[in-house]
Amino acid sequence: MATKAQWxxxxxxxxxxxxxxxxxxxxxxxxxxxxxxxxxxxxALLVALSLVIGVNFANDYSxxxxxxxxxxxxxxxxxxxxxxxxxxxxxxxAFGCFGAAGIAGLILVVxxxxxxxxxxxxxxxxxxxxxxxxxxxYGYLGLGEIFxxxxxxxxxxxxxxxxxxxxxxxATWLTAVLIGALACAVLxxxxxxxxxxxxxxxxxxxxTRLGHTGTRVLYLALIVVALAGVVWVGALTTWWxxxxxxxxxxxxxxxNAMLTRATGMALVPALRNTGIxxxxxxxxxxVGVAIGA
Length: 293
Prior knowledge:
Helix content: over 70%
Number of helices: 11
CATH topology: Farnesyl Diphosphate Synthase
Mean pLDDT: 91
Number of strands: 0
Largest sheet: none
Low-confidence stretches: none
Structural class: mainly alpha
Radius of gyration: 18 Å
């Protein structure tokens, strides 16, 4: 039986900024349009957190039963791959999280009145499960980054704003793109760390296709997109949004790791710091909008 600490580690708390940041950023854009609704923002946050934790458990289960998480895996503990938890218990935890996301999402839809968003919620859960689940997981086809960009960037940010303001403007779309780029960078750093093990297990992530050098270039390109996006959003809303550029501070170490070709466990801090940078960016945008108002 896995301990409480092992379950917490299995939930991969380092990835939680990818759930919090889009809701904070989307709410900031709602505030910039004069429509901030805190209760709806909180519900959106519950949806995002439940989905991220759910997809982490789902990945743990699916990769574990496929043998993709061997004993020599680099990185945080995997519950199924390490044998510390019953696979069915991990699967149940994943669907429990998806259920929690569904309940919070339903309440949010009732409050905002946009019932078509239920189809978006179903798509989010399906995408979370089939990332590494099912017979043909798209995460094994090098499409994981697209999933993260769309659902933890475009959908999460614009959805948060839309459920509060009933509209989405250009600044919101740009915010969604830059947050999506940072979320992708988190996954890219994770997959770069696991690249050798994934190749051996037959898991064809985008990193295994691009190779070490190509993956590092992709990471740096995503960071450039995020930084440029902040400047553009500032130009459309308030220049105080440039406070989000403080995210460059936690990005120094990850960028250095990419440039110095760090590998294995040396890339674990890169994942953590990239997630922190995404959260700092979102908070910077929110503070900037508040000051600008």
